[in-house]
Amino acid sequence: MDKTQNIKETPTSLMDEEPILEIKDLKKAFGNNHVLNGFSLNLFKGENLVIMGKSGSGKSVMIKCLVGLIQPDSGSIKVMGKAITTLNRTDLDELRTEIGFLFQGSALYDSMTVRENLEFPLRRHKSRFKNITDTTPLVMEALESVGLVNAINLMPSELSGGMKRRIALARTLILKPKIILYDEPTSGLDPITSKEIIALMRKIQKKYNTSSLIITHDVDCARVVSERIVLLVNGINYAEGTYKELAASKDQNVRAFFK
Ligand SMILES: Nc1ncnc2c1ncn2[C@@H]1O[C@H](COP(=O)(O)OP(=O)(O)OP(=O)(O)O)[C@@H](O)[C@H]1O
């Protein structure tokens, strides 16, 4: 099926805006393995955009291209108007402070308290926070946003899986990112904790006016959290639309995601 049949026009409410993140015709192959074959997407301010694709379809490769960890073979990626592939190391590092990551495993530092885990990114990006002498208000605000103020002095070993994920999110929020990349935010969590994380993602979107790219296999998460969904199939943005639109599609490749 011609992919253009599946691609929805950009929603009219967003049409006048510059995308905060723009991927155009991205191609990446490893030898004969052509992973991305002209993938494109626009992420707009304040939007939650879900990317779904089956295992091995290239979601992680796309994210790595996006943050400059992998050089694509061709195509362009602009984040807040800056072309990623042309930035030098310093500019790329600076741009990365505007992007929050919540990756699978949410790796907190086991030997540090929750407070120290949250302070870590502030120390790493010293130049941006050099005028801050007391980190407590920032730590408290981030913990408040994820509903875990009381966990400030706990060690990661004292936290449940869901709490760890919340703290990892707080550690991301402390840098006040404009864009958040979530990689499987609900994987490994029980249904109730997943629902709590999903609700939290919505709350964060509203409170911080962040734009998010969310990679997930979790159809429930996609339904609740997204304004739009992009399906990555055969290395391209095969289909795009709201949950409702895609869930009603008759295309077998699209239906496969909603069974
Ligand atoms: N550095 C690399 N060198 C060679 N091949 C790679 C490299 N990174 C990824 N690949 C290949 O690219 C393809 C896509 O991998 P990727 O990790 O992006 O999939 P994914 O969609 O994120 O999968 P999953 O949902 O299982 O995490 C796979 O065939 C993988 O083997």
TrEMBL record:
Residues 21-259 form the ABC transporter domain. GO terms for molecular function: ATP binding. Pfam families: ABC_tran (PF00005). The keyword Nucleotide-binding applies. Keywords: ATP-binding, Nucleotide-binding, Transport. The keyword Transport applies. It comes from the Bacteria. Gene3D superfamilies: P-loop containing nucleotide triphosphate hydrolases (3.40.50.300). PANTHER family: PROTEIN TRIGALACTOSYLDIACYLGLYCEROL 3, CHLOROPLASTIC. This is ABC transporter ATP-binding protein.
